[in-house]
Design brief:
This protein has about 150 residues and is of the alpha+beta class. It has a single domain, classed as 3-layer Sandwich (Rieske Iron-sulfur Protein), CATH 2.102.10.10. It is about 10% helix and about 30% strand. The protein has 1 helix and 10 strands; from the N terminus they run αββββββββββ. A 6-stranded antiparallel β-sheet has the order 1-10-9-4-3-2, with no helix packed on it. A 4-stranded antiparallel β-sheet has the order 5-6-7-8, with no helix packed on it. Strand 2 and strand 3 form a beta hairpin.
Length: about 150
């Protein structure tokens, strides 16, 4: 009896985990399928934990921020702010999200002032109600694939 209850509970948890939807984002879909070699000299800042790089991507993307969490884990986020995807600062070109100079654990939007946590893209402060759009990453120890 306990075994059946355990199996049913395990199945329900597995079902709930696999049925979770991705976080909503007001950003348009962008086809992303990028492969880089983060341990190469081309990506020196990604050679160490806590390093990040800005990559280009297909329009309408404004680029991607890639951050190395540990030796085998990376996160990648869209550089378009979800608060106002079409918005631009007055008198300048449209902004791109940047890693904050004051705190390298935060990503900021220089136009609206929103701040996001670099580990998961969650909103920390500012007018944005949405987390950053996160791309999938897959690292095999040599190459890092970033995709949607």
């Amino acid at each position: 009896m306990k075994t059946k209850t355990l199996l049913v509970s395990l199945f329900m948890v597995l079902f709930l985990v696999t049925c979770q939807k991705e976080a909503y984002t007001p950003l348009p879909h962008v086809d992303v399928n990028i492969q880089i070699f983060p341990n190469s000299i081309q990506y020196l800042s990604l050679n160490s934990i806590g390093g990040y790089e800005y990559l280009t991507a297909n329009p309408p993307s404004r680029g991607i921020i890639v951050y190395r969490i540990d030796q085998s884990s990376f996160v990648a986020f869209e550089r378009t702010c979800p608060y106002d995807p079409e918005g631009c600062c007055e008198g300048t070109q449209c902004s791109r999200l940047v890693v904050d100079d004051e705190s390298p654990f935060l990503i900021s939007d220089p136009c609206c002032g929103s701040l996001y946590l670099i580990l998961d893209g969650s909103n920390v402060s500012g007018p944005s109600q949405y987390p950053l759009k996160q791309y999938h990453t897959s690292f095999d120890g040599i190459s890092l694939r970033i995709y949607d």
